[in-house]
Design a protein that fits this description.
alpha/beta, Arc Repressor Mutant, subunit A, 5-stranded parallel β-sheet, 4-stranded antiparallel β-sheet, 12 strands, about 25% strand
Length: about 220
Amino acid sequence: MHLLIIEDNKTLAEALSLHFRDGGHSVTLTTDGEQGLQFLCQESFDCCLLDINLPYLSGLSVVRSARQSGIQTPVLMLTARDQITDRVTGLDAGADDYLTKPFDFTELDARVRALLRRTPNLQNKTDIIGQLEVHHEGQYISANNENLLLTAKEFQAFKAMFHNRNQLVAKANLIDQIYGVGADINDATVEVLISRLRTKIAPHGVTVKTVRGLGYYLQVDEA
């Protein structure tokens, strides 16, 4: 599962990111509404966790603008506002569910699962790139009906590039998505990870290309 978290409380944002990454999921994290809306409109996510009180653009404005642009990503609003009128306003703006702070992570997980059940086309979606089949629900990749033996971090690296396959993924962004924001990871660790991933997927028509000093992207090999 690929989640977008838009939350300006950095402690909570990092806790959410760590929670879902520990569960084997890919996470994109931002702390302001304006950038969050850009992510939501430009990338493919299975679910978005969205705070209401955000800098630059409120959560209500984010979800309202996304829906007006035709974005159907399930949105779970996270907020300290617990009045019925606040919940109604959020749902009317386009949110799919509403969870008040503080909350229990088990309830959060249950609500995310419920949102995905309502959108089986997202939960059960399988994409194809080259000769590879990307199984989003099961968090694995197969080729010729055989699973590729990827580690969790190799799969996260692949998904980060796959979800941004029309553009370069900066090395810093890749580190954030795989290891968490602020993780003390050196370049050599990432390069070894990418090298292993490249070796495993190259026989199946997909290459990880390196732009030295900038980042990586996926390229489908010509037949």
